[in-house]
Automatic annotation (TrEMBL), chains A, B, C, D:
<feature type="domain" description="YutG/PgpA">
    <location>
        <begin position="28"/>
        <end position="159"/>
    </location>
</feature>
<dbReference type="InterPro" id="IPR036681">
    <property type="entry name" value="PgpA-like_sf"/>
</dbReference>
<dbReference type="GO" id="GO:0006629">
    <property type="term" value="P:lipid metabolic process"/>
</dbReference>
<protein>
    <submittedName>
        <fullName>Phosphatidylglycerophosphatase A</fullName>
    </submittedName>
</protein>
<dbReference type="InterPro" id="IPR026038">
    <property type="entry name" value="Put_PGPase"/>
</dbReference>
<dbReference type="InterPro" id="IPR007686">
    <property type="entry name" value="YutG/PgpA"/>
</dbReference>
<dbReference type="GO" id="GO:0008962">
    <property type="term" value="F:phosphatidylglycerophosphatase activity"/>
</dbReference>
<dbReference type="Pfam" id="PF04608">
    <property type="entry name" value="PgpA"/>
</dbReference>
Length: 180, 180, 180, 180
């Protein structure tokens, strides 16, 4: 690990393990993606949602946001953060927005169409998000927003790909750069 | 007008008039703020929501986003935009995200706690937003997102002020900068 | 065109043509990328920078931001925008920030490491950007920021790929999703 | 402290003390603001820059970003962060962008015109920022970006106020909301 601190393949497995330790599986996130996209893509499968979540998790920016946010959740659980930040994070203070800031950085990677989906599931506390918001089950101030953001990002990715697939039925691909 | 193109007081009135011309009153926006905040602040009045909307509209960045977005809506209605953008804006293509980008710039001015509220009302199409999404009533591709963003911003502003008011009951104000 | 308003391959060619009409070639942008990255990657070629610019331009969000911004520049040149926005865009008013907002949406697609590069070339007015800022050569209020953003995005893309290449010398690839 | 975890007045003093402990005074930040704005406002004083920095620091979102970022710097200095994040933050890895994400959240509060200034001083490592980047003087992975962001925000604030002052010479103020 020391030799390749930012190797994104090994980092991917670390991140997936860390999510699991904090009680979140890829299927939990895929489930939120399914909820967000099923009305737009009738034949959508959970397997396809899961692959999209997996692709999002391969991005280094996503891994970094997850590692940082979960680390802060853990420190808050262990009560090792200095006051007044310890109390703020522990209580998931409504005016503390650093968690949303990290979440938005993930959503942004797939374009602005994901903002709406992020806000929607974050407000509804859909699926796994409800459980993460139960304060008796540990501190998940960052994790709930990050999970919502990954689901919104994976949804945007599916929407963009769906469009491309529809277009490809009609259009010959041509992706070599022109000579200048 | 020519002499003070960016005078924010006169610009405020221009923006309020422009909103009215496009079918949106301050009360329409205040109504969305009320929907978003009433569960958190029991004695909230529509008048207070309206003042918060008015304060948001005083900000130059908000005025600029509104002027730009509504102008694009109008050009699209008049079919004066070059293809393929004309068709994209006219249809409010789901993958066109420039409207959300302008909206987020408004929300950001009041911090990250507004993202969730923006996404929520944008998805629900609450109140006036439903009407703005009815394609038969003109092109409002930008306006619906901008109105949702102003409502989310005004809600964040109320939440921040509510907190300050609670604190002021206990704490002596001290806001002069320290000598260094 | 009418049939596939958002086909990203045909849209790519439209965008490249539009850039050319407004006086910007892929090589102009590649030149800025080279300036930003040459100190970090000794064997970097202009051809590689150009390919990275081309990849950035394939993204629909980038195309949409470009189409929208250039359209506003053209309308301002033709003096068809309503006051006070006409004067604001024509003069590239320092407090008008919608151009930066669109630019940032492009930079964000490649993660937050691009912010610094965007701000840096935007302030320096490096290369083509200096020319686009010469008010006598037409209105390019949006275009200069968009070109800077594309260059910053292409630089981020190169930095991420360079890292991956370094890692691949040591690490066996493993990119299939785990069974849950 | 426990009773008012988010009281923004007491939080302000905590944040100013924390900055001082980490080697940053208000004057260090005011100095960067002066560098950014002196060409635009000939009679600008360091005292005025300092007051603007102070105003920025009063915002709760700014306080939260500072508390969170500095806490992560301290944990990294104490080598208490889990791998691989410990190595990433300690080395200020170029592809780690969470620090820029927090910085941008601060800049955004004063609108998009601050992006350019943030990127510029962050790249130049002007003034105090150079010292914070010297790895031998502790871990300041977050702090350098946050200080640059506060300076950029304070600059935007000055630019907006300067404009308002110019306008007020000509325009009668009228800021009461219209009756609807």
């Amino acid at each position: 690990m020391e030799d390749h601190p930012l190797n994104s393949t090994s980092c991917l497995h670390i991140v997936i393990d860390l999510l699991k330790q904090r009680g979140v599986t890829l299927d939990d996130i895929a489930d939120i993606v399914m909820f967000l996209q099923k009305n737009y893509i009738p034949d959508l499968t959970l397997e396809y949602c899961r692959e999209s979540v997996y692709s999002v998790l391969k991005k280094r920016e996503v891994q970094n946001a997850l590692l940082t946010g979960i680390q802060l959740d853990i420190f808050a659980e262990e009560k090792r953060i200095l006051p007044p930040l310890q109390a703020i994070i522990e209580a998931d203070e409504p005016l503390y927005g650093v968690d949303e800031v990290l979440a938005l950085a993930i959503v942004n990677l797939y374009g602005s169409i994901g903002f709406t989906n992020f806000g929607y599931v974050d407000k509804l506390k859909y699926g796994k998000l409800e459980q993460l918001n139960d304060k008796s089950a540990g501190v998940h101030t960052f994790l709930d927003d990050l999970v919502g953001a990954i689901a919104a990002a994976a949804s945007s990715r599916i929407a963009h790909r769906q469009k491309q697939r529809e277009e490809c039925l009609d259009t010959p691909a041509d992706s070599s750069p022109p000579r200048s």
